[in-house]
Amino acid sequence: MMEEILPNLYRIEIPLPESPLKSLNSYLIKGDGRFLIIDTGMNREECKREMFSSLQKLHIDLNKTDFFITHFHVDHIGLTADLATETSKTYLSQEEAFIFYNSGIGGEEWRQKVHELFLSNGFPEDELREAEPNNPGLQYGLKYHIDFTPLKEGDTIQIGDYNFRCVATPGHSPGHMCLYEANKKILVSGDHILFDITPNISFWMEMENPLQDYLENLEKVYSFDVDLVLPGHRNLWHDHRQRITELQEHHQFRLNEIISALEDGNKTAFDITPWVTWDMDCNSWEEFPLVQKRFAVGETMSHIKYLEVKGVVERKIEESQVVFTLV
């Protein structure tokens, strides 16, 4: 589906098959002889068909098109290499551009470290090995190398009548970045603020305290004067402040669930996760798809880290596993 939201600003809804996210909102802006695409979708045929069909209908010349990627998750960046040309610029936050090409993210050594991290937090090895090959990040990532144009807080992108300011909002990912158009009161929120679902705030080896960063950056954009929010998934919205309050309450509720779980005794992050409320169409934790179990445990780990830094919980090592207890 493709629709014009404002003059020369379009939403292209890119399908995400087999994903609870359902689709990605890719945004296209027409300028004076040049175009900007914000986020692209996964590198898979269903995404390609919808994207190329919509671009053809809008008469977009990819040789005159640049790209802004809110963050490097596969559902936002995966298709970019198939779209970008030699004359394209692909903008990404300087933090994630550095991680992408200097930390070995996605490589064998990095994947092994992640594997060991989840094992030490109680994830059964047989389930973990079964889940890993089905991770979308490994299946539908960039097809070719891209030389990113790094951006930092306060940088601007001018395209036609739109003048966007870059706003660093790490939390959902290490270098997540929003765009803010002050004159038109538009916030391109990526996955920083979603309205029908809550952003996954997982544990990252590249971040000290992801949930703390996320909550701080919700506060950061709360004061912005916004009439229209363009999120990375699902419905567009207008009242970002109400949604920020709801997201803050959501994470406090999740923190309280983790504390309640530990009142019942010491547990690994994997053992705590079933105590947390998840919006999944499953009757029990055992019915969760393994990939979704992995995402859920990652989010539980980020919330435990937040409580650990606050001095509410502490970790112990028992039989090569990390076990958490209330202080």
What does this structure look like?
It is a single chain. By secondary structure, the protein is α/β, with parallel strands linked by helices. The chain has two domains: 2-103 and 142-247, Ribonuclease Z/Hydroxyacylglutathione hydrolase-like (Metallo-beta-lactamase, Chain A); 108-138 and 261-326, no CATH class. The chain has helices at residues 45-57, 74-77, 80-83, 94-102, 108-120, 125-131, 136-139, 210-222, 240-263, 269-272, 290-309; strands at 2-6, 9-15, 23-30, 35-38, 65-68, 90-93, 149-151, 156-159, 162-168, 177-181, 186-190, 228-231, 313-318, 321-326. Strands 1-2-3-4-5-6-7 form a seven-stranded mixed beta sheet. The chain has a five-stranded mixed beta sheet with strand order 8-9-10-11-12, with no helix packed on it. It has a two-stranded antiparallel sheet with strand order 13-14. It is globular and about 60 Å long. The protein starts with a strand and ends with a strand.
Q: CATH superfamily name of the largest domain? A: Ribonuclease Z/Hydroxyacylglutathione hydrolase-like
Largest sheet features: 7 strands, mixed
Q: Please identify the structural class as seen in this structure.
A: alpha/beta
Low-confidence runs of at least 5 consecutive residues: none
Helix and strand sequence? EEEEHEHHEHHHHEEEEEHEHHHEE
Strand percentage lies at 15-25%
Given the C-alpha coordinates, what overall shape results? globular
Per DSSP E runs of 2 or more residues, the count of β-strands stands at 14
Q: What CATH architecture label of the largest domain applies?
A: 4-Layer Sandwich
Q: Please indicate the count of domains.
A: 2
Query: What is the CATH T-level topology of the largest domain?
Result: Metallo-beta-lactamase, Chain A
**Helix percent band:** 25-40%
The end-to-end distance, rounded to whole angstroms, is: 51 Å
CATH class of the largest domain: Alpha Beta
Which sequence of strands runs across the widest sheet?
1-2-3-4-5-6-7
Mean pLDDT: 96
Number of helices: 11
- The value of Rg in angstroms is 20 Å
